[in-house]
Amino acid sequence: MKLKGIHHVSSLTANARQNLDFYTRILGLRLVKKTVNQDNPSYYHLFYGDEKGNPGTGLSFFEIPNMARKHPGTNSISGMSFRVKTDDALEYWKNRFEELGVRYNPITERFGHAVLPFRDSEDHEMVLVSDQNNKGTAPGKAWTGAGIPEEYGITGLGPVMLSVRYLEPTVQVLTELMGYRPSGEYRTDEKPSRLVHVFETGEGGNGSELHVQQRKDLPDERQGRGSVHHVAFRVDTEEELLEWVRHLEADGFKTSGFVDRYYFKSLYVTEPNGILFELATDGPGFDQDEPIHELGERLSLPTFLEDRRKEIEAHLKPLPSTIKGRSE
Fold it and tell me: What is the Cα–Cα distance from 144 to 255, expressed in whole angstroms?
């Protein structure tokens, strides 16, 4: 049982239409699935990714209208990142952010890689990280449907930052239970500078890393719009996922057990500082109910909700098409 890297990250938004515009038009990600929150189908659950929504490229958002802003703090997923091919790509994005009014900070370096920090309108803290000096987990293939040149496009998810009150219990779970291994550390640019511990799994590199910092100086984060809800890790097969359920529960962890998310199979577990982890299979993929060339164009519902389609669609505000020349 070996985790292969980051599978996807799931966040919170208060406005699906605004969210769709930022992540497709500005960042150039592909909307690979327009569906609903399976636990509350009155609201959207949007999945973005590379050209096919490959594992390791996915960012999803649960829409919760009128949700208050997050109150940042510790015991949280305090940052996430996207991969681009080269340092030159960061210059392209810096200029693009300037033209489009996206908030960003100067290009800097983290753990041997050039990075460009930025935020969306709901204060999600993100960076673009260059793969120029990276080895390890392969990236996806950038979506070019938004007009961003392929050589500059986003190719997948990079390192995820965890902020925890107590470092040792999280490190113990990552290394002794989940198979992550220490790969180094670095200090942040802020003052006072903070030590960040880096862990990797699978083939390593940007597509697998967790960056963990201890923050005893902050209150716990209060989640709201702009919060990252959970991070998911790649599991190869459904059989292996069932082994993980047994493995975690044998170690005393309470888990969700096996959960069928249709596009992948999952289990959920909370680590000792209260951060939600998901383990998710690489398959079967987002083309289960739509052809590849039409991903994200219609509302997709899992089979157990299909008989409620008319009711669900009546409660949802229509979203614009992400294919040029087509409108909904």
Answer: 39
Please name the amino acid found at residue 253. F
Residue 108 vs residues 42, 78, 94: alpha-carbon distances, Å: 41, 18, 12
- Please give the domain boundaries of the chain with CATH numbers for all domains: 6-288 (3.10.180.10)
Phi-psi region of 50 (alpha: psi -120 to 50; beta: other; left: phi over 0): beta
* Cα distance between residue 269 and residue 44, in whole Å: 23
- Condensed to tens digits (0 to 9), the pLDDT of residues 120-158 reads 999 999 999 999 999 999 999 999 999 999 999 999 999
Looking at residue 124, what DSSP letter applies?
Answer: -
Element of type H or E holding 214: strand 210-214
Strands 30-37 and 125-130: unpaired
Q: Is 107 exposed, middle or buried (0-12, 13-18, 19+ CB in 10 A)?
A: middle
Q: Write down the pTM of the prediction.
A: 0.95
